[in-house]
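Input record (one chain):
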Amino acid sequence: MNTRPIIDFSLAPYENVIFDFAGVLFECDYLKMVRRVFPAAHNHAELADKIFKSDVFVEYDKDLIDQEELLLKLSSLALCQLKDIENLIEVIKEYLVPMEESILLLYALKEMNIKLYGLTNMPKEIYDHLIKKYEFLKLFEHITSSSYVKLAKPDPAIYQKLISLTGIDVTKTIFTDDRVVNLHPAEKLGVKSILFKDANQFLQELRGMMNINFIPQNDSEKRVLGNRN
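The corresponding structure, as predicted from the sequence alone:
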């Protein structure tokens, strides 16, 4: 991705930004996934909740059960065919696509020497797939994935794990996630948080906190900035 915005950067009080993945860097619409795999389902929203908000899927996120066990448990829980649940895993990989404007932010922050970190609840199969597929993930200093530490947000232990693994100064760190419940543990550890709604909203809040001015070079960057410079 050829995205190198010109940046006017003055000394900021923060050195690190921790990003959630699904819903922040990658599109994540569970309802669309369920509609794709189960087109004849009576209530797609209810089925999505049964699958993705289940304790079984959290166990899978933490690598406490393998894919075979996940398939068996979910097929029973959601009253679905085993082959359909198996297809769902592949559809998740297909539908988790990068959010262009969020990726622009990564390159901009990296060019400012802001260190990037990741904190995600994600099964190994899906996490490994993304790592292999997307070059921009090499921008990160470190990524803590639930499946590799057997912990998941919002458990405070996974935030503490990231901090211990990286040695980051929490007072110089910002964390962003699209779920409020995931922000609270970070704040209790002294990490400043921003609820992610979209790239422009996140950038406006980040600019205010870090005293940053981005000068857009192209239409794509202007979309991120909302033409407010």
